[in-house]
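[stage:ingest] chain + small molecule (beta-D-glucopyranuronic acid)
[stage:ingest] validated
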Amino acid sequence: MNSITWRAVLGLTAAAGMAVTAAAADMEWRGWNIHPDGYPNTVGMAKFAELVAEKTDGRISLEMYNSGTLGSQPDAIEQVRIGALEVGNFNLGPIGPIAPAANVVSLPFIFKDEDHMHRVLDGEGGKAIADGMAEQGLVVLAWYDAGARSFYNTKKPIATPADVEGMKVRVMNNDLYSGMIEQLGGNPSPMAFAEVYQSLKTGVVDGAENNWPSYESTGHFEVAGYYSLSEHLIIPECVCINADVYNSLSEEDQAAVRAAAEESAVLQRQLWAERSEASKEKVIAAGVEFNEIPDKAPFQEAMKPVYDAYLAGNPDLKPLVELIQNTD
Ligand code: BDP
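[stage:predict] done
[stage:export] tokens:
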């Protein structure tokens, strides 16, 4: 159905008012999420679905498919881009390779902390990133938190870049992450999230990197017992929707869907903060050996060539990098 026909249909159902709530939805969307029940993102996306139905008087329904049941994240990103799926809760890591502006968040240590990331996303930087994603068919409705990613492995605590030398480290699919590990002298192994547990267990890789909640929820802590607080990446996530689907909505429904996503993000961020603490406590109580890295400068120094590679491929994005670095 083209967008004009959709608008006509939506106009009619709007005129019918509350009577439509009991009827089947006019639009049935499917949403992708990689996380299990109870995870902050899963709860956030369930809230999003509930609010979408509520705010559109049932004209739109969203069914969420969790735990990555609809496929790996890079595949799901493609599915949402082409409209085979309507919605996804995506990490910006695997979006970077298709949207260079969004790849800026995958530069190691680009954000000073999570608050800095929020300030950037709420300003010009966030707009530039969202515009770059929209050009690739993904409209950002809201940003979710995903904390900071740190290294963990099966061998030993990591305190300096030299400790990563020779280690085989799983990364998400993105050349910037492979470059990052190479700069530390390690061997990067890009791999789907679902394969990491077995790979750590069987020694296919020695380590990986992630935030506390994912380290805990996946059980990776059971097979890779050293967690070292490098916090080298702070990557936001999106509630994203296929651009054609979004553009076909009436202005009223666009606003409703956006408000639903933003409200769900408030909940997700609160749950995120709580879960980060709880996951950290849980894995440490389970025997994980955890170390802080008070001096991160050697890691920042070693990873600098990743910036050069990014800017060599995208010289026009230098102002965006500087904008982020100059945001207080
Ligand atoms: C988690 C992200 C998820 C990624 C996963 C990974 O929330 O989207 O797929 O990391 O490392 O923190 O693949």
